[in-house]
Amino acid sequence: MTDITDKIAGLFAAARAASIDADQLLGSVATNLEALHIPPQATTTASTSRPVLSAGLARRPVRAESLRQAAARLGLDGVSIKRLLANGDLQAVTVGGTLAIPTWQYDAGSPSGLVPHIRAVLAAAEGRLSWIELAIIMATPQTALIAEADHNIVEWLHFGFPVDSALAVIRMEGRHD
Hints:
The protein contains eight helices and five strands, in the order ααβααββααββαα. It is mainly alpha-helical. Strand 4 and strand 5 (150-151) form a beta hairpin.
């Protein structure tokens, strides 16, 4: 997964250098994203028998689903989804002319069904990262987030570690234009 994540990140860096918008690039490859799917593998660290991955956390490829699918997953109606979007508690993107919800935002283990502190995460990334760059960063283990193992940001927040550490990683990864 890390190899594919690195390749995707490299592709987007090259696209940015060529002044190709990341969302525009994604639109041209969206039909092939399914081919990148690698099932998440639960792993353990030497210091603990607790799986680093649990409850379907985010070490998975970049994916997005329809508003209807998001509502069903979260047990909400369309009005509630739109309220989450309006309040900055959920991000929607346009893929192929249709609004979609990037799936990294879900955390089945949290009471809301969403990644803890998602509003702060989205605010930190706004204007710095395209949605796909954010999805990659959220799912990539970060050496700056170490507690028993390198965690990705979704795991870090799920396990209740300090949000400020996660936000610092996002801000550091942001555009330096």
